[in-house]
Amino acid sequence: xxxxxxxxxxxxxxxxxxxxxxxxxxxxxxxxxxxxxxxxxxxxxxxxxxxxxxxxxxxxxxxxxxxxxxxxxxxxxxxxxxxxxxxxxxxxxxxxxxxxxxxxxxxxxxxxxxxxxxxxxxxxxxxxxxxxxxxxxxxxxxxxxxxxxxxxxxxxxxxxxxxxxxxxxxxxxxxxxxxxxxxxxxxxxxxxxxxxxxxxxxxxxxxxxxxxxxxxxxxxxxxxxxxxxxxxxxxxxxxxxxxxxxxxxxxxxxxxxxxxxxxxxxxxxxxxxxxxxxxxxxxxxxxxxxxxxxxxxxxxxxxxxxxxxxxxxxxxxxxxxxxxxxxxxxxxxxxxxxxxxxxxxxxxxxxxxxxxxxxxxxxxxxxxxxxxxxxxxxxxxxxxxxxxxxxxxxxxxxxxxxxxxxxxxxxxxxxxxxxxxxxxxxxxxxxxxxxxxxxxxxxxxxxxxxxxxxxxxxxxxxxxxxxxxxxxxxxxxxxxxxxxxxxxxxxxxxxxxxxxxxxxxxxxxxxxxxxxxxxxxxxxxxxxxxxxxxxxxxxxxxxxxxxxxxxxxxxxxxxxxxxxxxxxxxxxxxxxxxxxxxxxxxxxxxxxxxxxxxxxxxxxxxxxxxxxxxxxxxxxxxxxxxxxxxxxxxxxxxxxxxxxxxxxxxxxxxxxxxxxxxxxxxxxxxxxxxxxxxxxxxxxxxxx
Length: 688
Known about the structure:
Elements: E1 6-11, H1 22-40, E2 44-51, H2 56-64, H3 69-86, E3 93-96, H4 100-115, E4 119-129, E5 134-135, E6 141-144, E7 153-154, E8 171-175, E9 183-192, H5 198-204, H6 213-225, E10 230-231, E11 233-235, E12 253-255, H7 257-276, H8 280-284, E13 291-297, H9 301-314, E14 322-326, E15 329-331, H10 346-350, H11 355-365, E16 373-375, H12 377-407, H13 418-436, H14 440-461, H15 463-468, H16 472-493, H17 498-508, H18 539-549, H19 563-577, H20 585-589, E17 593-604, E18 607-616, E19 623-627, H21 635-638, E20 642-646, E21 652-654, E22 657-659, E23 662-663, E24 665-668, E25 671-674, E26 676-677
Helix pairs in contact: 2-3, 4-7, 11-14, 12-14, 12-16, 13-14, 13-16, 14-16, 16-17
Domain TRNA-binding: 587-688
Enzyme class: ligase
Main location: cytoplasm
């Protein structure tokens, strides 16, 4: 093994407004396996995390629940910790961003950035409710459309003529909070001058193994497009930390949640240091020789690979050794779905199945790439039953009884097949390397290849037949070889299956399961009585989990149609049955249309007609959609808008990538107009 390294590891912070689900667990299981593997190799590894506890969403969630934000985040934190413990995620500390340590570090970093000339302010004109004493977001203001004059339109978009505009352009605007007439007022916003760090970031991102190649290439595109200053302030009311050093008499300004969220890594570690005596500065000072790794989803790379290292550099602190991004989770080849029962909460899974099933299955699918992984429930059952029960556990169950019955639980004094056992020991080097490289799928394949050799050895020598012939010494010899291989397999699987491995350690009567202990031969060694280490995955339990996860669509009250509408529906149904140009309501019901937020919109090189959209449709991951509207819109005209996306079209493979839906537009005289929706429309809402 290499010399001991000091390593600090983090996972992205789950947001404190909802439960943990299987999509989240991809990241935490991946991180936990890597941490356990690195510890097993003899390194000093510390794993910290925290709840991301700030922002408007938290404030609104608390209001909806008639509790304080502090009560909201405390309740969710307890739920998160319970779920993580259920899946054996071994945090050294799990904290909250709403902490005194995080407030201190956030303000200190901001102050250093301000002193370095990296903070500037810019006034932005907004509508202000004088009765409520707050600036109005677009969803809190209505008025007459400046284009067509339609009344009661929201502050960014007209539902009648589809025009877009600024809220300050509305005619006769009024606040939806107080019904008063707002005034135009300037709001000072604070910006972090990210472009000043462009040269540093270009150099930093080129660091050895700093980023995966796919992530580096994406950052290169952002560099080519030009970095923009980052708005880091929000106006009250807001649940978060106040920005320090603001001029006297200025209204309260708060840090945008994404500023203090990554600082939460430091705060969680500091909290641990204060309780354990670890040296905080050793890990975070500028010239630190320790290592810092972040595990994140590919959707938050911008914050972790640009803003975060730039903030740390500007504040005179160390930057991450590497940022490891992963893909998203699909279930049965599709997006996670409540109606199909594949949007599975951690708690629901734990009510039905062994968490180590999922840990192993995820490990078998994970690599160092950012590709999405698929949880195929049929394959899940087959792989766990075949690999873990049929191969690994089967070795111990086939041999333990003979050793206890014939030899009072004592293994032979010598190895009958030392070369075979040494081959399994030598495989440990490749398995360790695969773990460190986050190639967990390769590690599991190597481990199962070793298990296959053990089972082939048992099948060849047939200890059950030897036992019938009374050849107890030969039976002991065969079982001693097999159980020594089982010992190595348990060591290799321990990062993935900590509970099974610990139970196996007790059965084998050994002290440790670190990688160096694989060199130990269990000879003349007494083992304990064998108890089943893992049962098979049962289909009825998987089905029960899916059923418990399904959204009860029938419980939603039906909307009552008026007679005119009802007659139209009936006539359309009759016409469809007669083969006319009409379709029936059942045909229309097959189309799923959802409100989508345009997270990003870009031109497509070599495709003049196409725009590429990154859409948030309220699912675990964003969708990639191509639309042939480039001659009608510039990307910046649609970025940030709410549009309608058909989400149940089959994915279409195109030259430039996979298109996962269709954006609705209206067409007249060859002119396409994208159908946009008010900002108040919730993302993921289904159009009916």
